Task: structure prediction
Amino acid sequence: MRIDIITVLPELLKSPFEASILKRAIEKGLVSVHFHNLRDYTSTNYKQVDDYQFGGGAGMVMMIEPIDRCISALKKERDYEEVIYMTPDGKTLDQKVANELSLKENFIILCGHYKGVDQRVRDHFITREISIGDYVLSGGELAAAIVCDAVIRLIPGVLNNETSALTDSFQDDLLAPPIYTRPADYKGWTVPEILLSGDSGKIELWRESQSIAHTKNRRPDLWEKSEDA
Result:
């Protein structure tokens, strides 16, 4: 998988990819992540990437020309299955979206900034718009890092235990069940006996029942969705 991220602040984005699971995935050659500074694609001496909006109004808007130049240059080198724009009014990131993107070979992420991008960028270049929640950030960089983390961990070979990602919350529209580790008794707080039984069949049934109860209690909206599926 190759991910190209277009941003005006590449230095803000790099650190998450220099540690932990993302770093290991890159070192294993399972994914490559490339940062493209939008200011390198401007035609002005001042490296301008934003301008006032037509019709007046507060806030600057990212210009279409440098974005077009950057995306066009990337597309000359390879095919991309998605050109994603991080925006608060996009489709909210969920596990289904992460699963879909984990199957892609190459995609671009455009990080918004200021008031947003010229609408013509969205009309003519963007194939998918993603939000990480109903709030506004200073830019799309941190949101892009979250998308990358959610997607890259699903690539086979990234996690040490290949089945780990398949049992995460939201994979089946259910929250994960309670989990425990040693010691089995800590200050009188004990682990459920079923988990110590060694009976894998009963343990799986227990976990399923706990997932259902946990989801009904904390996310009834997810439970209704799973029932309708």
